[in-house]
Design brief:
The protein is an alpha+beta fold. The chain has three domains: 131 residues; 40 residues; 84 residues, no CATH class. It has nine helices and ten strands.
Amino acid sequence: MTRPTIAVVGMAETDRTTVLAQEALLLVLGSYPPAVDEDALGVVKSLMDDWTSTAELDPIWNAISIAPDFNADAVRASFARLKSWEARLSTEIRLPKGMLALASSDLQELATQRQVDPQGLARLLRGGAASTRIRQLPPAGPGAGAIKQPAAPGKPAARRNLARRRMLGIASAVVTVGCLVFIGLYLWGLRGGRSWNSVAPEFAEGIPLTGARQAGIEVAGTLADDSWLSTDEATRKDQMKDALRELPAGVQVFFVRDQKGAIRATARWFGKPRDIDVQLR
């Protein structure tokens, strides 16, 4: 039997599938207990504006994973749950690079670990956002009726719709600017707004650091030579893992900046039993 699909009536195909995918991601991340806090959820909302027919999760992972209280297990499970809805959402869900090696069975098991608010799921299937009408379509088959599209508006209605679209465009631009400012302040609060103490860089054997600093559970190192970035990926990952293991037990994250200050590698403890996840950029 063909699985029912979700459709939004009265919107362009790309728009409606994008809206559904966005609402679905907010649902899986925000269901109790939430996988991310309100600040990170705001970052997620702003990054989803770039989605079209594809839901790119790697930029979202990279943006929120630098938070000191980032719950990698909960976010992985949330992304896996979203991936399990891929066919129903009619949107390609591209997982973060760190999840691409997972087998389908592993993703299915991860998806079952993330519980979703049943009322929120019902609202998504029934109506989603206030401006979006959603309904369950029956399985496609011979003689299935076509979806009725709204009648074309007359000239007065068309003028009103044009004015409404212009206002929405202006509002969207204002929201986008606000989100960019928010992300900048958010990242500044995570990195620049805290006290950093110097750490001897000898713990990072094989990684040419000019120095390292610690703030709470994070240690940051700056490359003395960016040629390390051209070293093969497997070697860099092993060196990042070894460096994190050499740091005191209270340190949960070690990341490396290039000479321009951009974060190019991150190693983070996660899971039970504890393991190390490495992201290279």
